[in-house]
Amino acid sequence: MTERTSVLIAGNSRSEQAVRQKRPDAKIVGVLKDLALVEYVSSEMIVDEIVIDGQMAPRGETLEQWISRYNKAFPQVSVTVVGENPGQGISQPSATKVITSQTVVVWSPKGGVGKTFISANLACAAAMATQGKAVLLDLDVCSGDVATYLDLADGPTIVEMLPELPRLRPDGLDRYTQKHASSRLNVICSPRRPEFSNLISVEHVRHLLSLAARRWGLLYVDTAPDITSDILGEVIEAASAVVLVITQDVCALRQGKVALDIFGKLGIQEESVHIVLNRGSKDAPISESKVEEYLEKRLAAVVPDDRKTVEKSVFQGRPVTLSSRTEIASAIWRLLSGISPGLPLPDTEKRQKKTRRLRFW
């Protein structure tokens, strides 16, 4: 499957509209109104191309001088200038879309597709990128396995905080949070026994989500497959992004299609839903392109099938994103970049340099 070009826009809403019309297959990772921010973001995330409003005015230099300097600093990124005066008639440029805080819900309507594996690795990557300013909340309250995936079996769980939850301040969550040492990820684990799940109400979840978002900024939530769960409904309502995990299995695809239809009826914006094909294989009867055709939506990421690496990771309680030498780790980091533009990637995950070309529309 051909990977979409990542485009960063320097301009206003008309510039963004022009890109969407001329480049419908491009992946827009941000819209910035300051060329200094463009330089910063280009150094911190994967960008294939920048599209610049021809009326942009850099500080202390002409646009041509800025482009020349940018070319030398980022030779792997192509530059496109949009029109001569694309900003005329626009009173307010669009706001910066680089994400600084999010509630990311990882879910699948089908069990056994690797949802918790994706949750744990994605959250660990975010914690590494933000130096610990991320939390993973395991709300698969009956059968959560986050603690196992991260080797955190002996610490506190969500159950211990319930009596104090109504009176807690955001920093009070620290007493009930375990720290994954290698990634610095904060983790709130699910109950150790399924019968304790009855103690957790929707009101508890609503309050916990609010506290955790204020405490850490980046909140990742692992969920149960049960689509009828009131807890899942509360989490989805609070989400700024939903990661839908599927496989090339017929049943998983069918249920994924149903989930997308439900999201649409709930009014969840299409761009907020990121589909991850886990255990992707080129030898599968249903190809990646057929998956996209059936779901009528592009895949945000394809995590390759590598059972040996995954089984070793789970056995050791060590997420694969701690090592950037596997294809699975690279796929998770690219997924993080797509969901949260602006988060820095490891140097080894940044793409090889490309020949730069300067074009004018």
What value does the Rg take, in angstroms? Answer: 21 Å
The percent range for helix content is: 25-40%
Widest sheet: strand order?
Answer: 7-8-6-9-5-10-11-12
Q: Estimate the mean pLDDT confidence.
A: 86
Superfamily (CATH H level) name of the largest domain: P-loop containing nucleotide triphosphate hydrolases
The top-level CATH class of the largest domain is Alpha Beta
Secondary-structure-based class equals: alpha/beta
- Tell me the distance between the termini: 28 Å
How are the SSEs ordered, and which strands pair?
Layout: E1 6-10, H1 13-22, E2 27-32, H2 35-44, E3 49-53, H3 63-73, E4 78-82, E5 102-107, H4 115-130, E6 134-139, H5 146-149, H6 158-161, E7 178-180, E8 185-188, H7 202-216, E9 218-223, H8 230-238, E10 241-246, H9 250-265, E11 273-280, H10 288-295, E12 301-304, H11 307-316, H12 327-339, E13 358-360
Key features of this structure:
single chain; 361 residues; alpha/beta; Rossmann fold; 2 domains; 8-stranded mixed sheet; 5-stranded parallel sheet; 35% helix; disordered C terminus
Textual characterization of the structure:
- This protein has two domains: 6-97 and 348-360, Rossmann fold, CATH 3.40.50; 102-340, Rossmann fold (3-Layer(aba) Sandwich), CATH 3.40.50.300.
- The protein has twelve helices and 13 strands.
- The chain has 361 residues and is α/β, with parallel strands linked by helices.
- The protein has helices spanning 13-22, 35-44, 63-73, 115-130, 146-149, 158-161, 202-216, 230-238, 250-265, 288-295, 307-316, 327-339; strands at residues 6-10, 27-32, 49-53, 78-82, 102-107, 134-139, 178-180, 185-188, 218-223, 241-246, 273-280, 301-304, 358-360.
- Residues 84-99 and 351-361 have low confidence and may be disordered.
- It is globular.
- It has an eight-stranded mixed beta sheet with strand order 7-8-6-9-5-10-11-12, sandwiched between helices.
- The longest helix has 16 residues, at 115-130.
